[in-house]
């Protein structure tokens, strides 16, 4: 265990761990991309659930898991994987750091298989409207922002978006 926060109920990693433990059967043998992988805590949880995980981060030197490699990637530019590669993508507390979230969502959509799933967590803000609009606020051009109906940039293939920080499930 590389991060004790996965056992702290005050940490979002605790709830992500519990969620993945609850769907362990769905993850076994599935291709999962962890972006940004950070210290590797989520990668470790996913490996424990039997998933086939690939970890990417702009700064892989912070990845602490010794049994696998975290590859360097600028997620806003490209995830170095073929189209339709992954069953799942997990992006925890990362989307708010990307300079172009709309481009990031297009890239995530590109690497997901049809009916693939995205688990996305963001920091908790004061209301639902702020949470849903945050990815838009840093988009370089407002017309590139995903619409509230989540229909632009291939959103229908991303079937599941979960927000653990407030307990709101979309």
Summarize this structure briefly.
This protein is an alpha/beta fold and 170 residues long. The protein contains 5 helices and 7 strands, in the order ααβαβββαβαββ. The longest helix has 11 residues, at 12-22.
General description of the model:
The protein is of the alpha/beta class. It has helices at 12-22, 24-27, 41-48, 101-111, 128-137; strands at 31-34, 52-57, 70-72, 86-92, 112-121, 162-163, 168-169. The strands form two sheets. A five-stranded parallel sheet has the order 3-2-1-4-5. It has a two-stranded antiparallel ribbon with strand order 6-7. The longest helix has 11 residues, at 12-22.
Sheet with the most strands, sense and barrel status: 5 strands, parallel
Helix content: 25-40%
Order of strands, main sheet, comes to 3-2-1-4-5
**End-to-end gap:** 30 Å
Q: Number of helical runs?
A: 5
Mean pLDDT over the residues: 77
Which consecutive residue ranges, at least 5 long each, have pLDDT under 50? 145-170
Query: What letter string, H or E per element, gives the SSE order?
Result: HHEHEEEHEHEE
How many E strands? 7
Tell the overall outline: globular
Structural class: alpha/beta
Topology:
Elements: H1 12-22, H2 24-27, E1 31-34, H3 41-48, E2 52-57, E3 70-72, E4 86-92, H4 101-111, E5 112-121, H5 128-137, E6 162-163, E7 168-169
Parallel strand pairs: 1-2, 1-4, 2-3, 4-5
Antiparallel strand pairs: 6-7
List keywords for this structure.
170 residues; alpha/beta; five-stranded parallel beta sheet; 7 strands; globular; disordered C terminus
């Amino acid at each position: 265990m590389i991060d004790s926060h996965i056992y702290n109920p005050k940490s979002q990693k605790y709830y992500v761990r519990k969620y993945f433990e609850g769907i362990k059967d769905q993850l076994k043998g599935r291709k999962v991309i962890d972006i940004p992988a950070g210290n590797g805590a989520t990668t470790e949880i996913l490996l424990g659930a039997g998933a086939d995980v690939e970890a990417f981060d702009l700064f892989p030197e912070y990845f602490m898991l010794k049994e696998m490699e975290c590859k360097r990637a600028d997620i806003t530019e490209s995830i170095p994987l073929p189209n339709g590669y992954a069953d799942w993508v997990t992006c925890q507390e990362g989307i708010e750091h990307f300079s172009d979230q709309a481009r990031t969502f297009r890239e995530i959509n590109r690497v997901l298989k049809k009916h693939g799933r995205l688990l996305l967590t963001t920091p908790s803000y004061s209301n639902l409207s702020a949470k849903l609009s945050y990815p838009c606020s840093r988009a370089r051009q407002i017309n590139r922002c995903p619409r509230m109906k989540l229909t632009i940039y291939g959103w229908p293939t991303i079937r599941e978006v979960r927000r653990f920080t407030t307990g709101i499930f979309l």
